[in-house]
Automatic annotation (TrEMBL):
Pfam families: tRNA-synt_1b
InterPro entries, A to Z: aa-tRNA-synth_I_CS, aa-tRNA-synth_Ic, Rossmann-like_a/b/a_fold, Trp-tRNA-ligase, Trp-tRNA-ligase_bac-type, Trp-tRNA_synthetase
Residues at which L-tryptophan binds: 133
Similarity field: Belongs to the class-I aminoacyl-tRNA synthetase family.
Chief location of this protein within or outside the cell: cytoplasm
Protein name: Tryptophan--tRNA ligase
Enzyme Commission number: 6.1.1.2
Lineage, top ranks: Bacteria, Bacillati, Bacillota, Bacilli, Bacillales
Motif 'HIGH' region in this chain: 10-18
Keywords assigned by UniProt, alphabetized: Aminoacyl-tRNA synthetase, ATP-binding, Cytoplasm, Ligase, Nucleotide-binding, Protein biosynthesis, Transferase
Subunit structure, interactors included: Homodimer.
Function: Catalyzes the attachment of tryptophan to tRNA(Trp).
GO CC list: cytosol
Motif ('KMSKS' region): 193-197
Length: 328
């Protein structure tokens, strides 16, 4: 059986972008693959986090993974920091990488811009840690949003570089990006990706937003200068993004939506879009609230960490042995 690994950071509350671009696709994969889904808290601390908020976001993310339909009997759901092999292999992958290639990563450039001398070192070391996350499990496929493509390329490069030096230790993983929805854009800026760590709350819809908040955010979403509802990514990025969200949440093809709203203004379109988003998130939110404070959630995470530790330690031992670090 082939193996899947994917991680999400508890760096905020998950957005509709995280759901449509990543999480939603995890569910059907669980029947076909050996899946490891990770709450990557060590990635989240590459930028400052408030301890109480981080703690809550870790638990929220765990509950959301299950609320969208992942079955803990089928998948391994765990917290990265509870599996120390990630940090250990992360260090080794950092030592395998070059500063030049890390500085070229667009996420590093985006997240470090405006910080002057105070760019956290962890932001630069992030992609080698991500490579470690993936390589520890003999991963075949990594389902992620489009923004992670570059990090995946680097993971493949680092794995190949390591193998060339120490022998065939790592499997070279493939990326899996959804055809539609792999890059949901900010509601306030159609040229910027939707991100859960965006300080502008209006830029994203969180998976846990109340219906009236969703209505407000959709109403205030940026539109384009003319009044027509047409998919044209280049000239009408904002409305094209809203059409993508509408289509993914309703299951209606974009062309059908264009016909439905021909001659109608943005107002009617936005009212219906908000309703479709509310309906999509409602069943997830209901399950989330049952799971969030349940002791069951802790049992699942404990069992997940145990399984992940077993698999990860095996790989780490192979790596350390190949490098001359394991004594026995
Ligand atoms: P942060 O702002 O803290 O980086 P994020 O919203 O980018 O948060 P991540 O935890 O970095 O979320 O990524 C989790 C998963 O969601 C990844 O697979 C990523 O590719 C995907 N993803 C993130 N943003 C989007 C988006 N706007 N559209 C589609 N997929 C996305
Ligand atoms: Mg991100």
């Amino acid at each position: 059986m082939k193996t899947i690994f994917s991680g999400i950071q508890p760096s905020g509350i998950l957005t509709l972008g995280n759901y449509l671009g990543a999480m939603k696709h995890f569910v059907p994969l669980q029947d076909e693959f050996n899946c490891f889904y990770c709450i990557v808290d060590q990635h989240a601390i590459t930028v400052p986090q408030e301890p109480a908020v981080l703690k809550e976001n870790i638990r929220r993310l765990a509950a959301l993974y299950l609320a969208v339909g992942l079955d803990p009997q089928k998948v391994t759901l765990f917290i990265q920091s509870e599996v120390p092999a990630h940090a250990k292999l992360g260090w080794i992958m950092l030592c395998t990488s070059y500063v030049g290639e890390l500085e070229r990563m667009t996420q590093f450039k985006d997240k470090s811009s405006g910080r002057g001398e105070s760019v956290p070192g962890g932001l630069l070391a992030y992609p080698p840690l991500m490579a470690a996350d993936i390589l520890l499990y003999d991963t075949d496929f990594v389902p992620v949003g489009e923004d992670q493509k570059q990090h995946l390329e680097l993971t493949r490069d680092l794995a190949t570089r390591f193998n060339n030096r120490y022998g065939e230790i790592f499997k070279i993983p493939d990326i899996r990006v959804a055809e539609v929805g792999a890059r949901i854009m900010s509601l306030q800026d159609g040229t910027k990706k939707m991100s859960k760590s965006d300080p502008n709350q209006g830029g994203f819809i969180s998976m846990l937003d109340e219906p009236d908040t969703i209505v407000k955010k959709v109403k205030r979403a940026q539109t384009d200068s003319d009044n027509s509802i047409r998919f044209d990514k280049e000239n009408k990025p904002a409305i094209s993004n809203l059409l993508t969200i509408y289509s993914l949440c309703s299951g209606k093809p974009i062309q059908e939506l264009e016909t439905m709203y021909e001659g109608k203004g943005y107002g009617a379109f936005k009212t219906d879009l908000a309703e479709v988003v509310v309906e999509t998130l409602k069943p997830i939110q209901d399950r989330f609230h049952q799971l969030f404070s349940s002791p069951e959630l802790d049992k699942i995470l404990t069992a997940g960490a145990e399984k992940a530790n077993q698999a990860a330690n095996k790989m780490l031992y192979k790596v350390e042995k190949a490098m001359g670090m394991a004594r026995l």
